[in-house]
Structures are given as structure tokens and as C-alpha cells.
Design goal:
Elements lengths: L4 H10 L3 H12 L7 H8 L3 H13 L3 E3 L5 E3 L4 H16 L1 H10 L4 H7 L8
Antiparallel strand pairs: 1-2
């Protein structure tokens, strides 16, 4: 993988789906704009629940700020966070399948947990 350990940790901890990654990259590309949840749902054709879940994760990671009107803006709490997001963006642009594999391989990823529930165990 072409990511630093810190960028990989951010990816695994804070980005739970490819859709969430696309959302984060949109927010980053247009960091001068405040986005309402409705705007994000419309722009990315997502659901309110999925948008809200992703935003909560990004807020917790220090990647966004919530404005008084309920909108969100990409504004990392520290410059190094933006650097790691840039690493992720570059890796996704050049090696998307590798980034997608890392997202789905992250511990606690709901898709991975679901898939693992169908694995056969040697003692079963």
C-alpha cells in the first residue's frame, strides 16, 4: 500500500465505505463551501442516514467543523490531518482497488463482519 501508517490508520478508523470516502473528497475539494445534509444527499445521491453517519465519523476524526446553521465544512483540526487525507486522495486516484480493499479490511467494518459470518470454521 502506498499510504503512510498514519494515513492508513485514518482511513481504517474514519472512512467506513467507498461512498464515505467520496463524500470526504467532495468536502475537501470544495472546502470553501458550507454543506447542508440535504445538499450532500442531493450531490452524492445518498441517504440522509448514510450522510449523517459519515459526517459524525468525520467530525470525530477532526476533519470537519459543524457550523451554527447545521451545515458542515471541511476544516481539519490540524494540518497533518489534511496531509493524510491528501495521501488517501492520491492513493485512491492512482490505486483505487488498493484503497477500497483497505476500507473493507478495516476492523469493525460492517461489510467485513457480515462476510465473515459466512466463513466456515475448521471445527464446524
Amino acid at each position: 500500500m502506498v499510504l503512510s501508517d498514519d494515513a492508513l490508520a485514518l482511513l481504517r478508523r474514519s472512512i467506513r465505505s467507498v461512498w464515505a470516502l467520496e463524500l470526504l473528497l467532495l468536502l475537501r475539494r470544495q472546502s470553501d463551501r458550507n454543506w447542508s445534509n440535504a445538499d450532500l444527499v442531493r450531490e452524492l445521491r445518498g441517504s440522509e442516514v448514510v450522510v449523517q453517519e459519515a459526517l459524525v465519523g468525520f467530525l470525530g476524526a477532526g476533519l470537519l467543523v459543524a457550523e451554527a446553521d447545521g451545515s458542515h465544512r471541511y476544516r481539519p483540526a490540524a494540518p497533518v490531518l489534511d496531509h493524510w487525507v491528501e495521501e488517501i486522495a492520491q492513493a485512491y486516484a492512482t490505486r483505487p482497488s488498493a484503497v477500497i480493499r483497505e476500507i473493507f479490511a478495516a476492523p469493525g467494518n460492517k461489510v467485513q463482519v457480515f462476510a465473515d459470518s459466512f466463513r466456515f470454521r475448521l471445527n464446524d
